[in-house]
Amino acid sequence: MTAPTYVAREAVPGVDTGRILKIGTRGSLLALTQAGTVRDALIATGHQAELVVVRTAGDESAAPVQEIGVGVFTTALRDELFSGAVDIAVHSYKDLPTAPDERFVIAAIPPREDSRDALVARDGLVLGELPAGSKVGTSAPRRAAQLRALGLGLDVVPLRGNLDTRLRKVADGELDAVVVARAGLSRIDRLDAVTEALEPVQMLPAPAQGALAVECRIDDAESIAALALQDDPQSRAAVTAERALLAELEAGCTAPVGAIAEVVESIDESGRIFDELSLRGCAAALDGSDVVKASIVGSPDDAEKLGRDLARELLDLGARELMAVTEPASGGGGAGA
Ligand SMILES: NCc1[nH]cc(CCC(=O)O)c1CC(=O)O
């Protein structure tokens, strides 16, 4: 590594520029791209950094995430971080369990990508153009539940594998469409495949979708200081609200729960412009028979509380009962189908 150490001394006074920060990442193209942005930003602010690929249970198995358990993508990275084999771990934030891990701190949430889900369909079709019975692949119960609830009669089928594999199933004609995170396609430069970005009225994304969690050990002051430069307060507020909603529902990343928060500019009676955090959330029955939705607006400083308040509203609307509904025996159908 030939990092410009003279820049480091100017950019971050007091940093020991002799240390090469090791960034742990999964080996998929998506993960490497994500971790690469963190490495590049560290180098741009005068640090030395390099990637270290860590294999995870999520990479070894093709079974649905609901079966192999939450944390499949993140546990191995955290083990390496705790042992000191790496100094920094870059996770897709939505893959992290909601329970905080006291050994670490999320030192940076970099500016988030568009968090919407994306439809990749044959022949350039949008969702409303897919005929009843179309085979639509998705990895997430949240997406399956919301797709079924649209009442289009789609045949929702499970899907795993890296993004390339998923896209190929549409190209090969095995599936009519797949629904994946738009952010993932953006990061691997495959937005060309998207035939429709799904609006929140059709489908609410996973809490924290499109955001990265950049973790380091709680006592590693040097990494914490270095990563602080990459933190985006608005992304942090949005993700905090979405994750608090998920945590209050006592649900994990495989639950049929969607959320989207945004910091928006508002204006009061005296013409003063201020930031507001707008949060929408939903909980769905896996068979698509019902979805409850609610929204809330407040100060970005109250992100955590807004998320918890909205979760309680969803619980009052019957979220707990909906989340207990199980998958239909046949893949297809759904409300109104
Ligand atoms: N669960 C897998 C996963 N974790 C993060 C992303 C995409 C990037 C992101 O959401 O930040 C994906 C793929 C997908 O959901 O389509």
From TrEMBL:
<dbReference type="InterPro" id="IPR022418">
    <property type="entry name" value="Porphobilinogen_deaminase_C"/>
</dbReference>
<dbReference type="Pfam" id="PF03900">
    <property type="entry name" value="Porphobil_deamC"/>
</dbReference>
<keyword id="KW-0627">Porphyrin biosynthesis</keyword>
<comment type="similarity">
    <text>Belongs to the HMBS family.</text>
</comment>
<comment type="pathway">
    <text>Porphyrin-containing compound metabolism; protoporphyrin-IX biosynthesis; coproporphyrinogen-III from 5-aminolevulinate: step 2/4.</text>
</comment>
<dbReference type="GO" id="GO:0006782">
    <property type="term" value="P:protoporphyrinogen IX biosynthetic process"/>
</dbReference>
<comment type="subunit">
    <text>Monomer.</text>
</comment>
<protein>
    <recommendedName>
        <fullName>Porphobilinogen deaminase</fullName>
        <ecNumber>2.5.1.61</ecNumber>
    </recommendedName>
</protein>
<dbReference type="GO" id="GO:0004418">
    <property type="term" value="F:hydroxymethylbilane synthase activity"/>
</dbReference>
<dbReference type="InterPro" id="IPR022417">
    <property type="entry name" value="Porphobilin_deaminase_N"/>
</dbReference>
<feature type="modified residue" description="S-(dipyrrolylmethanemethyl)cysteine">
    <location>
        <position position="253"/>
    </location>
</feature>
<feature type="domain" description="Porphobilinogen deaminase C-terminal">
    <location>
        <begin position="238"/>
        <end position="315"/>
    </location>
</feature>
<dbReference type="InterPro" id="IPR036803">
    <property type="entry name" value="Porphobilinogen_deaminase_C_sf"/>
</dbReference>
<dbReference type="InterPro" id="IPR000860">
    <property type="entry name" value="HemC"/>
</dbReference>
<feature type="domain" description="Porphobilinogen deaminase N-terminal">
    <location>
        <begin position="21"/>
        <end position="222"/>
    </location>
</feature>
<comment type="function">
    <text>Tetrapolymerization of the monopyrrole PBG into the hydroxymethylbilane pre-uroporphyrinogen in several discrete steps.</text>
</comment>
<dbReference type="GO" id="GO:0005737">
    <property type="term" value="C:cytoplasm"/>
</dbReference>
<keyword id="KW-0808">Transferase</keyword>
<dbReference type="Pfam" id="PF01379">
    <property type="entry name" value="Porphobil_deam"/>
</dbReference>
<dbReference type="InterPro" id="IPR022419">
    <property type="entry name" value="Porphobilin_deaminase_cofac_BS"/>
</dbReference>
